[in-house]
Amino acid sequence: MVFWIFGYGSLVWNPGFEYDEKVIGFIKDYRRVFDLACIDHRGTPESPARTCTLENVEGAICWGAAYCVRGGPERERLAMEYLERRECEYDKKTLVDFYKEGEPSQPALTGVIV
Questions:
Q1: Catalytic residue among 21, 55, 87, 101
Q2: Mean per-residue pLDDT for 83-107?
């Protein structure tokens, strides 16, 4: 089984989970916004940190990295458990098409989790 995850914020430089392949590219119809006030593991109640979220905007693109996790259900489960702890909004998962840098017309991957 192959499992792909799209990172658009800190996951780009610090994924924090084991992966087999990293591909730079973008998703369409989403943009990165810094509108979430976070006190879980960044910031404090008095001074919350701004963290990234995605906003659905027709015609927008969001650059990031797609990570491939191979090796079966156990590796997938471990990656998702980690992401659900780290990324509080992972209670809502969306599947998107992912486009490689330099190839904007055809998706390189489909069904990538964001």
A1: 87
A2: 83
